[in-house]
User: Fold these one by one.
Assistant:
Number 1:
Amino acid sequence: MTSLVHLSEVHKAYDKTTVLKGINLSIKKGDLVVLLGPSGSGKTTLLNLIAGIDKANSGQIQILGAEISEMNDLELTDYRKDTVGYIFQFYNLLPNLTVLENAALGLELKGESLDYAKVILEKVGLEDKAQRFPAQLSGGEQQRVAIARAMAKSPALIVADEPTGNLDKNNSIAVRELFKSIANDSTIIIATHDSDYLDIADKAYELNEGILETIK
Ligand code: ADP
Ligand code: MG
């Protein structure tokens, strides 16, 4: 089996707090992986290691066969910019850019890229709101823009950290449905404490006491 993401014996501690105690994980291209665990269990830490935002103390993290710990600063920058699309709990849209401009952010703002961003906005159902600003959208719509922004750069991997943690029930359902609909084209890791995500998961794991347990 060729895996897109492969972690082997990954350890991570902050000062005296050991958060990850030997994580082994393989993710196949095209899988939607759900990472459950209570608050403080290390979900964000694990996503950040995979996304090249934080560094492990030991162990291997390979994406597309490249070992993250061996990348220099320039390679890491390119990795974060090109390979990973990151979706945050609080959307992190730029308030002074339109929906379309936000969606196109991952691309360099060229004419043809804007056209592609329009196609992606259609996929997330927001083509009619392309000229609005984030403050003129609901939370769920803002998160759909953030998902469009992540998708627009066609990253090898999309990671989402508590993507519906700030949304009400109906908006959460809409965002979850959106993840389900894009899952075939993308490899996605979603960290959440919401077990409703198990329904859309190809694989699911629970993080507890620094150890990963397979639950689906
Ligand atoms: P989760 O996302 O599952 O809520 P986190 O990965 O955010 O968990 O945090 C796991 C543990 O690591 C927590 O005890 C948290 O306080 C600690 N932690 C996270 N980031 C840092 C940091 N930058 N410095 C020190 N401790 C941290
Ligand atoms: Mg977290």
Number 2:
Amino acid sequence: MHLLILNPSQIITVNTKGIGYKRGNELNNIETIEDHSLIIENNLIKDFIPNTSVKKNQFDLIIDAKDNIVMPGLVECHTHLVFSGSRADEFKQKLEGVSYEDISRSGGGINKTVNSVRETSFTKLFNIASKRVQHFIEQGVTTLEIKSGYGLDFENEIKLLKVINQLNKKFPIDIHSTFLGAHTIPKEFSNNRNGYIDLIINEMLPAINKEKLATACDAFCESTAFAKNEVDLIFNKAIELGLRCKLHTDQFNSIGGIDTALKNNAISVDHLEVITDDDISKFSDIDMVCVILPGVSYFLNHKYSPVKKLIDKNAIIALATDFNPGSSNISNISFIMSLAALKLGMSIEQIISAYTINSAKALNLSDKIGSLEIGKQADLSIYDTDNYADLIYQTTENLNIKTIKKGKVIFDKNGV
Ligand code: NIG
Ligand code: FE
């Protein structure tokens, strides 16, 4: 299959010349190309050629991209989208002044969704989640991460991971599953934390490893969830089994999560709303990605992460929705980008880098995806605008008209 994307007004390559991430000020360099067309051969990017030398008869398919921009497929690197039930009642409580943490301490929050997920069949969860995956594809997402973490017992954590793996088989994008058994302490273990940690280490992780149900292991380091030494025990086991680690940390309290992530060579630390200046300076020259989730700050009316300070210290920043029913019931990427611009103070170029190459890096995949470079996978999206600022200026509008995965059109706004 020989595909030509003809004459776009601009190709945003986010080229890193093989480095696979952008840190600090480099986030601003999105490496645009004009007056060129893009050639895809089979599932790879073959070449960028000047429009003047295009020979149209050499291609099996030509997509006319006149007045459109072409970008790397978006990489949505942090979601909890396999869940059932609603937390609208808790949302109402929050509007009346009760905090997310207090709701969690009184048995609600994550444990409320756990109750619902435990009662929901595999098939029902699969059908609910399928609609959410499709929504991401329509926005230009070509790689998606989904975490477990609403089962919190052996049977239901495995059920969630199997749903995620089944979604990966059903949909043409790549869906990566992350095990988040250490999301919070389930209610039946409220007086036996160590018992739950033993269950994760001795039963869940070995079974997940045996069936290859996850590619990464996550945890929530927070005073309402797990302490740093508990996270450390879980990560040690995950690493022994060959899983890379990611960590939810510094959302409400800075309790040593960053050092625990560093000690375990995590691929990313996620949230960082309350990261300290001392911890910020640790990101200057390491390749651990800081995944920032502005939807959470918006949805919980909480502090925004000090991203400008992180960028000043040369960190690698990625962005994601954190789509989940409690802290970020938001799956609109354009809105997340808009929050990143208006609330985090990021430039439009920084946001594009953060949602492509750096989010690929947060999944340890940036050697294959996240930028349009010759030899990389042909994962891209085409937008109905000739000005990439529109992606953010047109807040909540979906300007994506085509999602292309491994050289195949998998979503076409006008029908495939
Ligand atoms: O990333 N911080 C912990 N976990 C999720 C929220 C999960 C929930 O409230 O259901 C998050 O914000
Ligand atoms: Fe999360």
